[in-house]
Amino acid sequence: MTTLSPDAKGYILTLSCPNRPGIVAALSQTLFEAGANITEAQQFDDTGSGSFFMRIMFDIVKGGRTEADLRGIVETLTSQFQMKYRLNCQSYRPKVMILVSKFDHCLVDLLYRWRIGELQIDPVGIIANHPEEIYRDVDFYGIPFHYLPITKDTKTEQEARILSLVQESQTELVVLARYMQILSNDMASAFSGRCINIHHSFLPGFKGARPYHQAWNRGVKLIGATAHYVTSDLDEGPIIEQDVERISHADSPEDLIRKGRDIERRVLSRAVRYHIEMRTILNGNKTIVFNS
Asked: How many CB atoms lie within 10 A of CB 231?
């Protein structure tokens, strides 16, 4: 993130619209007239879809335009360019709900990165389909814990409870930190664009149970993990981040699991960071990611 002047307030603006000449010029001029100083700008023209994407960081001198003022100013361009946009203060911390099952390595990693200030989030709850004693070695730092066991008979009822908790806490991002329950189509639709899942495979490939054992049986030389936005298509949502690690014939299934957990941790944390820093913009079944 760009370092702010002590006399300025920083904002992040992301946008998408049909591509045409004059978008950058109009936006730059509009921000200049609002008293903004652009500190970072990234853009992408998708020639395949004819769409334009941009992420801008800018400062406003303290005492100048308010966020409401800026939204009004930006909205003067939305009809002209058929533009969709998001605007947030750089210091904004989105409310995050974390869902987890038995394996807690991704949960622990996210909590650690939040605790040391690496992830600028406000965790509002942890939902698990296993009882709290399973995580007795994990410090939740006072974050509310909700035990919601799911069976075939209780799935609809418990999903309704999850949705209620998300709404009551005003959650803005849901993170499936190795939450091993398939979301219903209704829930996936409710979380569209604001739910990130970590998949224990370098997609596509080795879906289903025991993916690292499948990889070992096939004698693969690379294993990986994929973080993606959740959609009603199982594990087919827009990809945010992926990573791999080389393995050899000498590695056992347990070695693959150990290495896989490390990959899952770092891939999920990167994806969450990209989302909260507004570095991601959905583009159909793909994701534009403006890396730092």
From this structure: 20
